[in-house]
Fold these 2 entries.
Entry 1:
Amino acid sequence: MKNESLTQHAKRVNDIQQALRDAGLDGWLFYDFRTSDPLAYRILKLDPETHTTRRWFYFVPANGEPSKIVHRIESGKLDSLPGDKFIYLSWQEQHEHLRKSLAGSGPKIAMQYSPMNAIPYISRVDGGTIELVRSFGVEVQTSAELVQHFEAVWSSEQRETHVYAAENIHRIIHEAFGEIARGLRAEEPVTEFSIQQFILRRFEDAGMICDSPRLSPSTPTAPMLITALPGSFILRSSREISCFWMSGRSSINPEQCTAI
């Protein structure tokens, strides 16, 4: 199991180094203090549940061997990752290990930093640590594009599931309108709740789930009980599957509605 983990992490480091070379960067410095950077854990495939009370650094150069800087109390924190390990106890030792690790790699080093805090999701490294790294002659660059590459690019399987969900949702939308029309023609009561439940059953039939049942908040007092009547309009929402009945409204956009 340990060898498999090392192989997995070694492949991830190779992928990171290739991405650095493609981006024209000299390295990527990961830093964490008490799981302050969840991005680092996900990208490096580390377990965020492990006990962490001390600062650690992991430097991946565009070429060459990575460096691990860990505290003596938690010296095994990054053992699953490849690279040379440097153990510190005092802050002076920490700074010296960091300086040596960054020396000779080139000045353009990516960190979880966003200029002017433009992307707060990326801005995980505190200002003092940025100042420390810059004091070694490093030009700290944002890792935003790198993070996007490793966090937001779909795998083939993820793309397939997305297409599957999109096709089925499109089908279910039309089926829901058909169900409304069927109920009205049969003079059966049609409510938002009944159509919501119809949609959820179709989701289940397709093997899909949603985070919570969707329902329009058009009538906060009793949203589940609004009844569709002949001559009403059903507004089609482009953001989610939501249906609500509108009668006597003069500002309806016909392109957004389905007559029943």
Note: Strands lie at 27-32, 56-61, 67-71, 84-88, 108-111, 139-142, 233-235, 245-246, 257-259.
Entry 2:
Amino acid sequence: MLGLLLVASIVGIALVSQPAHAEIVITEAQMERIRNTCIENQATLNRLHQTDAFLRNDRGNLYRTISDKLMVPFNRRLASNQLDGSKFLTITADYNKAYTKFYDAYIEYDNAMVKAACGGLRQAAGLLL
């Protein structure tokens, strides 16, 4: 996760530091550096992807369980006892929206990690340098 944060930070800084409409020129030395570190970077990304998959899967299951096993039954009990649970229903709905956002972001991240290859890394790095 720390590696992903580092990569995202570097990409973010590089994007922010470049002028919006300027043409980016890549020197041969920069391309050579990208070529030389590509395999190492790919291996690091693969390890990060594996580690994140386990962590995100566990977190996703935990978040789903909180909603399905705790929040929904609680809201049902409130309704069956004819108590006002409107605030709790709102909290549950907001929680489920946040979970969906988390899940969608993970799918997008996972797809990007699967597609990452040395050719793509070279191209992305070339656009950022």
Note: Residues 28-80 form the longest helix (53 residues).
